[in-house]
């Protein structure tokens, strides 16, 4: 047994050293650092982060032919649905600009490099920082006796837009509203409202990345996500900001309109849906939340899809079927919408250069995500709706399961970044090996 453990430890160290000195999968531009802008006028509108700090965004100015075009990206980062989790969140960079980094790296769809982002590189590109915990949707404030929490996501959205309008947004020629994960859900919530701020002559469209959260039944036959969203909508006062046509249609359960699958048919602005049919966040928190797997039968499958047993693979294929079913009306009947639904075990693919546009990017019918989104936005094709084949047939995927560990329903979730594509090769290898060694009950470096 000691010999076996020594073998695993030695193998681990060798692999870590190998990865540490290996060249990156994608070379070249590492992204542009863009400074934060606090919205000074937000206080007058009552627009505050959870802790009362001012909201913020990062703006990288457009140039040349793109100087009158705008791309706004909602940041993601989970949600909070009760006072305790929201208080905890308010003490992190997910609930306060006081704890946020003051610069943001723009890559993928936010890149200003024409070779890495050919359709949007010279647009005005804005990243909206996320600090409310309800996908920019709430409007309420609560004191628990010791703390005041500001659930002002809707006001933050309005304040940022009003700050950008005199900076050129009011004269936009073309505009795209997008976002990742919780920010992708924000895109559904605010798409039509975004259009209302802009000139009637502007070409305005929206694109959600990893934001098509399903009202799923988990492996224990519960609707964990529905319960979570119902609590969130109630706590943060979101209902009054949901589409009234949707809430009337789903009365007496208006909180269902927080789910994109129910809100989608009421959105008038052209929408593009970018999502994995096996989205790892939804896999880990919607299909198999911890509450549905108390004995950990899914632990190995969650870390490595090749370790899933036939029953677990059937559940995953069923989740894909449910997602495609929820999108079928959109797929068949919308003439202005687009989609890219691939079969990669991933979460958020437009902000990462590796998945947005690179030699190793995922593809459907040999088209990258960047090419597909560009074709849809600029009308380069009659019907830009791509659906990939089911796992495991797509050989362009990385299937980096650990990506889901970077987003959580918990308040202290770290940045929305895929560990498989954003972390250094050394850090990723260490993370994977740590999970493996824990599974083998082997200690590495004393922890």
TrEMBL record:
Subcellular localization, as worded in the UniProt entry: Secreted, Cell wall
Keywords: Cell wall, Cell wall biogenesis/degradation, Hydrolase, Membrane, Secreted, Signal, Transmembrane, Transmembrane helix
Enzyme class: hydrolase
An example molecular function term from Gene Ontology annotations: hydrolase activity
Enzyme Commission numbers on file: 3.1.1.-
Spans traversing the lipid bilayer: 426-446
A UniProt-annotated Pfam family: PAE
One BP annotation, GO: cell wall organization
Signal sequence residues: 1-28
Family affiliation: Belongs to the pectinacetylesterase family.
Primary role: Hydrolyzes acetyl esters in homogalacturonan regions of pectin. In type I primary cell wall, galacturonic acid residues of pectin can be acetylated at the O-2 and O-3 positions. Decreasing the degree of acetylation of pectin gels in vitro alters their physical properties.
PANTHER family to which the protein is assigned, alphabetical: NOTUM-RELATED, PECTIN ACETYLESTERASE 9
Descriptive protein name: Pectin acetylesterase
């Amino acid at each position: 047994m000691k010999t076996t453990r020594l073998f695993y430890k030695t193998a681990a160290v060798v692999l870590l050293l190998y990865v540490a000195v290996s060249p990156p999968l994608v070379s070249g531009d590492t992204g542009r650092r863009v400074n934060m802008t606090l919205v000074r006028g937000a206080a007058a509108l009552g627009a505050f982060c959870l802790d009362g700090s001012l909201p913020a965004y990062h703006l990288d100015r457009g140039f040349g032919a793109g100087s009158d075009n705008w791309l706004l990206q909602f940041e993601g980062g989970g949600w909070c649905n009760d006072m305790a989790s929201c208080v905890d969140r308010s003490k992190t960079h997910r609930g306060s600009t006081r704890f946020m980094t003051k610069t943001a790296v723009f890559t993928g769809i936010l890149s200003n490099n024409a070779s890495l982002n050919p359709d949007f590189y010279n647009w005005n590109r804005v990243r909206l920082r996320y600090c409310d915990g309800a996908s920019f949707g709430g409007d309420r404030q609560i004191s628990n006796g010791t703390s005041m929490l500001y659930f002002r996501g809707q006001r933050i959205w309005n304040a940022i837009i009003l700050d950008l309008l005199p900076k050129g947004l009011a004269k936009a020629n073309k505009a795209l509203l997008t976002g990742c994960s919780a920010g992708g859900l924000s895109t559904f919530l605010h798409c039509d409202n975004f259009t209302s701020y802009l000139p009637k002559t502007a070409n305005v469209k929206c694109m959600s990345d990893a934001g098509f959260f399903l009202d799923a039944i988990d492996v224990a036959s519960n609707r964990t996500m529905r319960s979570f969203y119902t609590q969130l909508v109630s706590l943060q006062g979101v209902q009054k900001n949901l589409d009234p046509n949707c809430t009337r249609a789903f009365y007496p359960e208006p909180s269902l309109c927080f789910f994109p699958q129910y809100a989608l048919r009421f959105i008038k602005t052209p929408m593009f849906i970018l999502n994995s049919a096996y989205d790892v966040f939804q896999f880990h928190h919607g299909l198999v939340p911890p509450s549905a797997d108390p004995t950990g039968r899914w632990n190995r499958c969650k870390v490595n899809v090749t370790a899933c047993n036939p029953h677990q693979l059937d559940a995953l294929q069923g989740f894909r079927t449910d997602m495609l079913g929820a999108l079928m009306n959109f797929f068949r009947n919308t003439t202005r919408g687009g989609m890219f639904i691939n079969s990669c075990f991933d979460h958020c693919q437009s902000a990462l250069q590796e998945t947005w546009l690179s030699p190793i990017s995922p593809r459907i019918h040999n088209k990258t995500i960047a090419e597909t989104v560009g074709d849809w936005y600029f009308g380069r094709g009659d019907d830009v709706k791509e659906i990939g084949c089911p796992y495991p047939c797509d050989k362009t995927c990385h299937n980096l399961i650990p990506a889901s560990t970077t987003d959580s329903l918990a308040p202290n979730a770290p940045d929305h970044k895929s560990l498989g594509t954003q972390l250094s090769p050394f850090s990723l290898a260490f993370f994977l090996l740590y999970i493996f060694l824990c599974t083998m009950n082997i200690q590495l470096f004393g922890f």
